[in-house]
Amino acid sequence: MSTSSQSSSRSSYFDTAVATLQTSGFYWGAINANQSKTLLVHKRVGAFLVRASSDPKHLFTLSLKTETGVTNIRIVMCDGKFSLDQNNGTITRARANQQGSPRFDCVVKLVFYYMLLSWRTFRQNSSSTGTRDRVAAHLSLLWPLYKEVSTLQHLCRRTLNRHVIGEGVHHLPIPPKLKVFLRRYQYPV
Residue 96: which H helix or E strand, with range? Predict the structure, then answer.
């Protein structure tokens, strides 16, 4: 493959990743840490958003409300894969080494992965303590803070994705054009 076609392929991949993130609704673009803090400070623990990173070495930052306040975690891109910055104190090194720092080809996949882990922990904690107000996990992605109200089409797509995970779409008795629309964003968040 030539250098120009590799560059074009990387650009296309990046454009697709950004388009998916923008479609999610919880991508806030070029806001800074103070602006994200203002948005999240009065939200409940587990509220989060993704924004453009103010650090020129990184593309995106995850801002989230924790038990101790609002924190920001860089999203690192290496070899076309996204992962959370392991140098940040909200993820313990032991857990990172145990799990091998999960990497994803899409920021929304990364967020969805950590949301699933967070919800599992949240449910375990709430069933053992009887309360849902306190979330014990350091990294709790529970409630995306949407920038604007999604279209009815996108809300329906997310709802369908919640019930038909992944490639179950091809089994649905719907027109092929609608299946293509559903596959463009395959996440329930």
Answer: helix 93-99
Contact assessment for residue 53 and residue 140, using Cβ atoms and an 8 Å cutoff: no
* Beta sheet of 143-144, edge-to-edge order: 81-84, 69-78, 60-66, 47-52, 143-144
CA distance 68 to 66: 5
Six-digit token string for 112: 């969805």
Which whole-number Å values give the CA distances from 122 to 47, 70, 126, 144, in the listed order? 13, 18, 6, 15
- Selected from 3.40.50.2300, 3.30.505.10, 3.30.1490.20, 3.10.350.10, the CATH number assigned to the domain covering 3-144 reads 3.30.505.10
Confidence (pLDDT) at 6:
46
In this structure, the strands spanning 47-52 and 143-144 are parallel
Within 10 Å of residue 52's Cβ, how many Cβ atoms? Answer: 16
pLDDT along the chain (189 residues), means of 10: 49 76 89 94 93 87 92 87 72 43 86 86 62 53 89 83 71 82 76
Encoded tokens for 20: 């998916």
The Cβ of residue 20 has, within 10 Å, a number of other Cβ atoms equal to: 19
Q: Give 53's Cβ-side CA count (13 Å radius).
A: 16
Distances (CA, A) of 90 to 63, 140, 172: 12, 10, 40
